[in-house]
Amino acid sequence: MKTIEQMVQQEVSCCLSSLVSMLATADARPGTDLAELCDRALGLAMPVPDYEEAAIQAGWKGSNRTHHWTHADSQQIYDQAETLCKYEEIEPIDSVVYEHWAVSPWLAEKLVAQGEKVDTNFADLKVWARQSKDQQISADDVMVRIYARMMA
Question: Which of 23, 32, 103, 145 has the CA that lies 20 to 30 A from 118?
């Protein structure tokens, strides 16, 4: 049986934060492959809108089992936090991207399914825009969820 640390070691290749940062601020000639890569890097470096946290701070509660969002002062029920924020005019909270990691195609697919920001074609690499820092990747909530589903 594989541990979560072994899963991360197998599926996460290397840190690309410096490369993404350098490319995101580079001045490449428009219309070139380098310019396209710089644009992709800029997209990876941009904050990620966090609709769930915005909904929670606005007093809404989500249920993990049913994925329904409810509020004590409202009769409305929403299936997704993003939809809720749109219709209730709640601005999402920007979640900062701290690191960029090259990941396997398998892990990229799992991260996307968990709502994580992943560029699946960054110079033929799968790059995860990690929104956590100061802890091991294996301790990230998203990794714990992926591992739990894998072991189920």
Answer: 32
